[in-house]
Please model this.
Amino acid sequence: MQKLELEEPVLIAAWPGMGLVGFNAVEYLRGSLGADKVAEIDSTDFFAIPGIQVKDGLTVPLKVPTNAFHGWKNPGPGKDLLLFLGSAQPVTGRELALSNLVLQVAQLFGVHEIFTAAAMAAQIDHLAPSRVFGVSNSAEEASQLAGLGVLMLQEGEIGGLNGLLIGVAHQQGIRGSCLMGEMPNYTTHIENPKASMAVLEVLSQMLSLSLDLSPLAERARYIEAQIQGFLATARSQSESGSAESGSESEEATPSDDEDDSSGTKSGGGAIN
Model:
C-alpha cells in the first residue's frame, strides 16, 4: 500500500457490467484526474482462471483480474477521492468477501461515503438522452440525488458488486449510493460512453468536480454512428431478402390475371 494522505475521501467503485457504463466512468475519472495507484487486493481467492490462450504455438501471458485503488488529493475545496476498479466480477460465492475487503481497505484511508456506478438497460432508442437512475442507503443522500434529477429506483434488484457494495456498506454504517446510466436494452454488449458521461455529470455535481467530458461525448457520437450504420445495413439486407422472396414466390406461382391500371400485377406479391 502506497502512503497517501487523503482527507476523508469519497470512494467511487466499479466493476465491469452492461455497456461497461460504470467501469468506463470510473476509469475515465481516474485518467482525467491523474489518480495514483495506492493499493491493490490480491486476486488469488476471488477469480478462476480455467485455462490458457495460445497463439502461433505459444502461450499468451495470463491476464489475471486486478482490484486496484487509486487516490486523488483535491487541490481545491472539494473532497479527496479514492477510486476502486475491479477488472472482473468475482466467482460465485466470493462476492460478499470481496465487498467486505474493499470496504476494509477504504476505511484504512478514512472513507465514510461511497458511490458505485452501473448501467440501467431500458426500452429506449440509442439516440435518446441517457437518464441516471439511483439507489441509496441514506434517505438524506437519496433526496440530494433526486434534487439533481436522478430518478430514484422504487423497486428491483441490482446485480453484481456495483449493487452489493452499497448493501454491505449499509451494514457497516457507511453511507452509499449507486448511480446507473440508462442505455438501450438491445446494445448491452456495446460500450455506452453516453451513459457513462451521464453518471459522471451527476458525480461532478455531488462532489464539486470540474471535468472535461468532451472526449466521452465524441466517443458517444462515434458509437452511435456505428450503431446507425449497422442497423441500416441490417434493414437493407432484410428488405432485399423480402424482395427476393416475393419475386421467387411470383415466379413459382404465375397468375392468369391481367395487369391492373397501376401497372402492378393483381395476382403478384407486394413489398411494403
About this structure: Residues 10-48+60-213 form a domain with the Rossmann fold fold (CATH 3.40.50.10900). Residues 252-272 have pLDDT under 50 and may be disordered. Strands lie at 10-14, 36-40, 54-55, 58-59, 67-72, 81-86, 113-122, 132-136, 151-152, 175-184.
